[in-house]
C-alpha cells in the first residue's frame, strides 16, 4: 500500500509554496512558484506539480489538502479589498465614530435600518424601506454586503431576514455579524463584518482556484484552510467567513516553526514579500490575542494568534525622503512589484525603459516606476469613478512607465486608489532588487535590479548631492534599513508581549544606541531571552544580521521557506460555541445562542439546556469542519454577584470547544 501523503499549500503575496508531508517521514518534497494574482490556479498548480514530480508520487497517495494564505492579511495591511455595502440594523450614525468603523468604511456605502434587539434578545420593529430604496443601485456598484444588527449575538433573526432579502434581490454575497463572533460590542462587530465582506471575493477566488486545480488532477480529498488561530476549518466554511483567515499564513508558520524546530520558547519572525509577522512561542504554543487580531490598524473580533503584523517585506516600497540635508530611507507598508520580477514576467519591457531613463541628463520624477494591471476579474473593478476608470483603461497587462501615464499630482492620487482596490501593481525598486545586486538572491532579472538602483541612487538630497554613490551603495543602505526596521518590529512585538507597550523602539534613543552598540558613559544593551526563529524564503539572507542586532541566537530551520505549508498540514480542527443565559426579571431565564431563544422559569433547567446546546453545537461545528472523532470540553463562566444579600444572575456563559485531527480520505 502506498503511504498516505498530506499536501500543504501556502499562497502568499509573492510565492505559493507546496509541501508533501508524511506522518512517518515528515516533509518529503517542497517547491515554490510565483503567486499569480490574475489566476491563482497557475501558481498553485506550478508549486504542486513540482512536488509531485520530485517524489513521483501518484495523486491517489494524497489523502488531505490543507491551505494557508496571507492574501487576506496583506489586503487589510495594504488597504485593499472589494467594495462592500454595510447595513446597520438598530444603530445610528453616531455609532460609526466608534471602534474605527468610519475610517474603515471610507467611501463605501452604509444603510441604516430601524430594528434590532435588546440585551435579552427581544426585538424592536424592523423596517426595510431604506434598504429597498438603496438596493437597486447598490447591487450594481458593490461586490458584497455586510449586515450588523443591534444585539444580533443575542438574537440573529433580523440579520437573517435582511440577509435573505439582499440575496434574493442582488444575488451577491452577504456576511452577517452573528456568523463571525458571539462577542458584544456592536461597532467593532460591524467593523469585523465589513472587512469580512471585502475579503469574500478574494478568498472565494483562492479556494475556487485550488479546488478547480485539484479537480483537474483527480485529487478528490477533503480540503482544509488554516484559521488565524492556527486551527483548521473546512474550505466551504472559510468561503463564508474569510475574515477568519486573517493571519492564516502567520498562524500556520507558528505551527510549522514549532514542528520544525522543536523549540518550546522562541520569538518567531516570518518575512514575506509584503509583511513581517512576529509572535511568541511559550510552552510550545503560540499566544492568542483574546481581544481580537489587529491587522492594518484595525482591531477585529477575530480570535487569532497574538501576532504583530508589519508592512515590511522583501517587496516593500522604498520611500526616499529627500527634503532634509541628508536623505532618509524607509520601507513599506505598501508592496511593490520588484523590477527584477517584473522584468522576468514581462521580458523586454522593463530594461529598455530603464536604460533610456538613465541616458537622460536630468532625473525624472517617476524614473524607475511602472504600472501594470493585476489581472483580477473585470467584475471586481465595478464602481470606479470616471477619472479612475479613465486611468485604469490606459493601464494594460504590460508594465507602462508612470512618466507616460501620469501628467498631474491628481492622477497620482487616482493611481493610488486603483492600487488600494487591488486592481493595479506599481513596479519599482524593492529590497528584493537590492539583494539581487548584492548576491543574496538571484532568481529574477539582476540587470533590471541594477538599472533601477542606479536610477534611484541619482535622487538628490536637500544639499543637492546624490543619495548614494552608486547602485551597490544604495542597495546596502536598503538592506541595512530592512535589518533595522525588522529589529524594531521584533522588539515592538516582544515589548507588547511583556506589557511594556510604552517603549517605542523607533523613537527611543537608548534603544537606538543599544542596537547599534554606540559607545557612551552610560551603556545600553538590548536582547532577547530566547532564540529568534527566522522564517520565509529570504530568512537565511536577512535574519542572521537581525538576530545579531538583537543579541539573540538565530535559528533558521531547513524548511524555513515553506514553514507555512508545513503548519497547514500538521494542524488540528477546533470549533468553539458560546451559549448565554440571562435573567431580565426574577424567575425568567433566557437562553441565547446555538438555536432560537428559549425562555425558562428555572435556573438549573436553563443552565442544563445551555450546556447541552453548547456541547452539541461545538461537536456539530467540528464535524462540519472536517474533524475526525472530535473531543469536546466545556467551560462555564457565571456572573452572579450578591446584591443586598440576594444572588443576582447577570449572565452565564457556557463555552464548548471541540477539536480533533482532520478527516482524511481512505485509499481505495
Which parts are unreliable, with pLDDT below 50 for 5 consecutive residues or more? none
Tell me the Rg in angstroms.
26 Å
How do the strands line up in the largest sheet?
3-2-1-4-9-10
Q: Helical content, roughly?
A: 25-40%
Q: Judging from the principal axes of the Cα atoms, what is the shape? A: globular
Structural class: alpha/beta
How many angstroms does the end-to-end distance come to? 10 Å
Please tally the helical runs, counting DSSP H or I stretches of 4 or more residues. 20
Task: Kindly describe this structure.
The chain is α/β, with parallel strands linked by helices. The protein has 20 helices and 33 strands. The chain has a six-stranded mixed β-sheet, with helices on both faces. Strands 11, 12, 13, 18, 25 and 26 form a six-stranded mixed β-sheet that branches. Helix 1 (40-55) packs across helix 6 (186-216), helix 8 (248-261) packs across helix 19 (563-570) and helix 14 crosses helix 15 (446-457). It is globular, with a radius of gyration of 26 Å.
Summarize it.
The chain is built from 20 helices and 33 strands.
How does the SSE layout of this entry go?
Blueprint: E1 5-11, E2 15-22, E3 26-34, H1 40-55, E4 62-69, H2 71-77, E5 84-89, H3 101-105, E6 110-113, H4 129-141, E7 144-149, H5 157-170, E8 174-176, H6 186-216, E9 223-226, E10 232-234, H7 235-240, H8 248-261, E11 266-271, E12 276-282, E13 285-286, E14 288-289, E15 294-295, E16 298-299, E17 304-305, E18 308-310, E19 316-321, E20 328-335, E21 337-338, H9 339-345, H10 351-359, E22 370-373, H11 386-394, E23 400-401, H12 402-405, H13 409-420, E24 424-428, H14 431-438, H15 446-457, H16 471-497, H17 509-515, E25 531-535, H18 539-549, E26 554-555, H19 563-570, E27 573-585, E28 588-592, E29 598-600, H20 603-624, E30 631-639, E31 642-643, E32 646-647, E33 651-660
Parallel strand pairs: 1-4, 4-9, 5-6, 5-7, 7-8, 11-25, 21-24, 25-26
Antiparallel strand pairs: 1-2, 2-3, 9-10, 11-12, 12-13, 12-18, 14-17, 15-16, 19-20, 22-23, 22-24, 27-28, 27-33, 28-29, 30-33, 31-32
Helix pairs in contact: 1-6, 2-6, 8-19, 10-15, 11-13, 14-15, 14-16, 15-16, 16-18
Amino acid at each position: 500500500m502506498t503511504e498516505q501523503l498530506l499536501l500543504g499549500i501556502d499562497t502568499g503575496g509573492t510565492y505559493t509554496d507546496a509541501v508533501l508531508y508524511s506522518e512517518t517521514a515528515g516533509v518529503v518534497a517542497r517547491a515554490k512558484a510565483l503567486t499569480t494574482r490574475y489566476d491563482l490556479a497557475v501558481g498553485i498548480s506550478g508549486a504542486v506539480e513540482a512536488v509531485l514530480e520530485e517524489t513521483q508520487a501518484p495523486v491517489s497517495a494524497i489523502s488531505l489538502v490543507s491551505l494557508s494564505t496571507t492574501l487576506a492579511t496583506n489586503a487589510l495591511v495594504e488597504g485593499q479589498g472589494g467594495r462592500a455595502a454595510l447595513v446597520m440594523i438598530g444603530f445610528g450614525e453616531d455609532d460609526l465614530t466608534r471602534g474605527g468603523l468610519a475610517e474603515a468604511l471610507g467611501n463605501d456605502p452604509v444603510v441604516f435600518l430601524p430594528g434590532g434587539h435588546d440585551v435579552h434578545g427581544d426585538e424592536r420593529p424592523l423596517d426595510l424601506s431604506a434598504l429597498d430604496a438603496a438596493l437597486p443601485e447598490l447591487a450594481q456598484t458593490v461586490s458584497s454586503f455586510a449586515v450588523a444588527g443591534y444585539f444580533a449575538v443575542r438574537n440573529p433573526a433580523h440579520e437573517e431576514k435582511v440577509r435573505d432579502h439582499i440575496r434574493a434581490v442582488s444575488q451577491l454575497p452577504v456576511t452577517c455579524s452573528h456568523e463571525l463572533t458571539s462577542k458584544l460590542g456592536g461597532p467593532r462587530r460591524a467593523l469585523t463584518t465589513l472587512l469580512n465582506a471585502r475579503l469574500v471575493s478574494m478568498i472565494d477566488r483562492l479556494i475556487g482556484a485550488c479546488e478547480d486545480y485539484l479537480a483537474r488532477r483527480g485529487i478528490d480529498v477533503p480540503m482544509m484552510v488554516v484559521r488565524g488561530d492556527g486551527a483548521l476549518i473546512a474550505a466551504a466554511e472559510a468561503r463564508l467567513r474569510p475574515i477568519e483567515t486573517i493571519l492564516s499564513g502567520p498562524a500556520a508558520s507558528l505551527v510549522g516553526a514549532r514542528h520544525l524546530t522543536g523549540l518550546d520558547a522562541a520569538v518567531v519572525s516570518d518575512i514575506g514579500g509584503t509583511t513581517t509577522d512576529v509572535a511568541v512561542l511559550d510552552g510550545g504554543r503560540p499566544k492568542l490575542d483574546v481581544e481580537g487580531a489587529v491587522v492594518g490598524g484595525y482591531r477585529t473580533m477575530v480570535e487569532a494568534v497574538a501576532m504583530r503584523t508589519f508592512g515590511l517585506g522583501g517587496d516593500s516600497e522604498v520611500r526616499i525622503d529627500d527634503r532634509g540635508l541628508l536623505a532618509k530611507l524607509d520601507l513599506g507598508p505598501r508592496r511593490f512589484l520588484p523590477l527584477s520580477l517584473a522584468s522576468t514576467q514581462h521580458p523586454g519591457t522593463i530594461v529598455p525603459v530603464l536604460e533610456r531613463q538613465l541616458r537622460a541628463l536630468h532625473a525624472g520624477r517617476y524614473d524607475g516606476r511602472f504600472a501594470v494591471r493585476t489581472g483580477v476579474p473585470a467584475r471586481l473593478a465595478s464602481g470606479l469613478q470616471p477619472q479612475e476608470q479613465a486611468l485604469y483603461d490606459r493601464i494594460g497587462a504590460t508594465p507602462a512607465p508612470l512618466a507616460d501615464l501620469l501628467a498631474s499630482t491628481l492622477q497620482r492620487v487616482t493611481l493610488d486608489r486603483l492600487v488600494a482596490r487591488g486592481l493595479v501593481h506599481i513596479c519599482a525598486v524593492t529590497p528584493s532588487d537590492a539583494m539581487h545586486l548584492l548576491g543574496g538572491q538571484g532568481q529574477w532579472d539582476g540587470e533590471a535590479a541594477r538599472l533601477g538602483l542606479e536610477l534611484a541612487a541619482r535622487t538628490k538630497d536637500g544639499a543637492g548631492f546624490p543619495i548614494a554613490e552608486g547602485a551597490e551603495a544604495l542597495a546596502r543602505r536598503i538592506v541595512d534599513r530592512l535589518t533595522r526596521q525588522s529589529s524594531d518590529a521584533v522588539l515592538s512585538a516582544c515589548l507588547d508581549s511583556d506589557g511594556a507597550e510604552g517603549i517605542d523602539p523607533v523613537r527611543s534613543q537608548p534603544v537606538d544606541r543599544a542596537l547599534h552598540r554606540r559607545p557612551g558613559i552610560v551603556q545600553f544593551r538590548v536582547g532577547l531571552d530566547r532564540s529568534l526563529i527566522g522564517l520565509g524564503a529570504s530568512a537565511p539572507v536577512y535574519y542572521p544580521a537581525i538576530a545579531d542586532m538583537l543579541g539573540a541566537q538565530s535559528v533558521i530551520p531547513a524548511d524555513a521557506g515553506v514553514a507555512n505549508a508545513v503548519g497547514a498540514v500538521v494542524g488540528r480542527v477546533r470549533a468553539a460555541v458560546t451559549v448565554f443565559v440571562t435573567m431580565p426579571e426574577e424567575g425568567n431565564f433566557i437562553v441565547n445562542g446555538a438555536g432560537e431563544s428559549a425562555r425558562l422559569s428555572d435556573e438549573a433547567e436553563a443552565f442544563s439546556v445551555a450546556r447541552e446546546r453548547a456541547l452539541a453545537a461545538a461537536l456539530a461545528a467540528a464535524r462540519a469542519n472536517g474533524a475526525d472523532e472530535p473531543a469536546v470540553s466545556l467551560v462555564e463562566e457565571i456572573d452572579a454577584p450578591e446584591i443586598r444579600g440576594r444572588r443576582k444572575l447577570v449572565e452565564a456563559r457556557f463555552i464548548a470547544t471541540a477539536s480533533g485531527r482532520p478527516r482524511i480520505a481512505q485509499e481505495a
